[in-house]
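Bit of a strange request maybe. I'm writing a small parser for structure token strings and I need a real example to test against, not something I typed by hand. Could someone generate the tokens for this chain?
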Amino acid sequence: MTEPKADHLRAILESLLAAICDQATHLQLDGSFDTEIGDLVPQDTTDAKSAEQLLIEAFHPDRRRLLDFGCGMMHHRPFIESLGFEWHGVDYLDAVSMTVRDQLSTLTNEVRFYDGLTLPYEPEAFDAVYAMLVFQHIQDPDTTFSEIARILRPGGKLIGQVAYLEQMQDFGTFNFTPYGLKVVCRANGLILDQVHPKHDAFSFLCRRLLITLGSSDDTPFNGFLDPTGYFHRRIEECGKRLGLSMRDINLVRLMFCTHFVFQISKPA
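Reply from user aminoacidic:
Good idea to test on real output. This should exercise your parser:
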């Protein structure tokens, strides 16, 4: 894509978002979103943590055993092990993209495979579980979270990122809302502690549309996706103009993201 065309597309999206924010007069949030999720977003900053940051904070030398749930081709293993964790990987081949399934199936010496329901581990086998963009592929949310609760030790953490408003992926099943994630955690004895906004829906979906219709992955919107991107900056500016709290600004940001980051705990 040539630079003038890229500039034009970015300008169109920026103009649309600016026009909406500039005419804002007050905040209207659904009550359940405010009451159920409001205390889980950052309260005094608009800095959004990544799953990697949460994992760094969760590390303790006496609690090192980690399960990379839905590990795929083990892309996260070097980072996880660099933190000091003892890495273990598991995946479900029937939910893996066909383009990598054959490669993944050769990793039987390093990755364990399961039936999409029952994890092949003893109770309380892990101090942490990492699930990076995996839960939108699971077959049974309640069974999955029950199994994760079973294999986590008391005080353990489940950390990751999940699709929220994203369109179809290979073998995509469920796109969790923040409240939906809280509900399935609560039903299985887990506690949703934190949620952080990630990719904004406007930039993400425009980018995906370009890719789907034949553009390369190098689209004009790649640099917009981060929580420091244009949408997030405009919402922060708009919220401050309206006198909103950091909590409410973060709730608005979260509402219009395709993905969010989470931390879940098993009570000690």
